[in-house]
Amino acid sequence: MLKFLLRLFIAIICISINAQNTNTPNILFIAVDDLRPELGCYGKNYVHSPNLDKLAEKGTLFNNHFVTVPICGASRYNLLTGLLPKKPVDITNQAAAEQIAKQQNDKRPKTFLQEFKENGYYTVGIGKISHHPDGYVYGYREPKSNVLELPGSWDEMLFDSGKWGTGHNAFFGYADGSNRNDLENMVKPYEAAEVEDTGYPDGLTAELAIKKLSELKSKNQPFFLGVGFFKPHLPFTAPKKYWDLYDETKIPLAPFSKIPENVSKASLHNSNEFNRYKLGEEKASLENTLSDDYARKVKHGYLAAVSYVDAQIGTVLKALEENGLADNTIIVVWGDHGWHLGDQMVWGKHTIFDMALKSVLIIKHPNSKSKQIDQIVSTTDIYPTLLEFSGIDLTNKIDGNSMVGLMNNPKTEKWRNTAYSYFNKGISLRTTNYRFTKYFRNETPTLELYNELKDPYETQNIAKENKKIISKLLPVWELGNTEIFSKE
What pairing do the DSSP bridges indicate for beta strands 190-193 and 236-239? Predict the structure, then answer.
């Protein structure tokens, strides 16, 4: 009798654990490099993005999501830690390497991945989730190291570097196995090769994610699977079939390709990352606009890369469905920042204008209905949102706010409705009506104000004649003033 009761007790415990694991949602987090909201679901009907459009139709599409820093590594550090930048290293690509990888456990900020891992999740990273393309810290021209960029966060950190050999080479890779690094930048900023999807790295990343999903299905444990895709980051490379989706002559150019009125050139830049590709037919600068023909060719490359990564995401989402995991998995697609495609005469990120800060955010919860949210949200808010959805309590202080209440009621007046961004010696506040930026520099003007309702392309700085508006915005701006630039 005692043995029977003991077996019964163990069986009840096991059933309880299994029920708990079944009810705990999995998370599929997809990070996409340089993905501005240039998708069909954002009203760009000339873009071929059927898989992301379908996901947006089923989930929550954020129309006004802004990143905190317009550079890959720092934006991802903000995402992972939920912290606003407070010192100069926080706005560099080395933020995670310096502040997580090189620090002792008690000195590191806790990533949300670590929160998931400590709360029973099996955490797997594939590709670029933090800054380094394969999750390990080493230089562009160095062999792969064994130093994890996010120690304590992953049960597994995976990447298939294929014919390119290392993560960094794959990140800047071309279809023949060459890369920008080894070719000393003597390459074009685009390529359309007659290859299958696995002829470029993102195809290999998708295959690896699909394989891992089938393995995770058999685990009696909730999982967090992070999948990081490279495209549409430079170089704009994609199999030719994705280039063939577009008629280059019909690709629209930037709606405003001039320096805004009443703005210092110090607020912009000369497209150095783009110009690093030395075989490009033309160079960009604040003195020279690209010809319309070349601008269309470059944008063609960007859009082909978007369609290519959309297809890879589609194969991963299909595998999620086929493995019977979709009904209990939260799906997030996040772009790490935007990208000027000739807007304000810039080709690249690295500004605190909307074009570099506004990016894709789609969240699909199994129990949520299709909706769009127009209120302003920040990448900083993703950390607490995912924890609340998963029933995990925060154990450390962060700067973001959970968006769960906003997602349940997109019209709520309780939402903060602001986003702060930092770069180029400037701190920028985005509200529904305005972008207000204050620069800590010698070049004038140091204040910029744009009316986002009347001037969505930020063509004219109206700060000088709108001191009353600035006086109302300043107290809100001060809430995001972490005094980062006084520490340089």
Answer: parallel
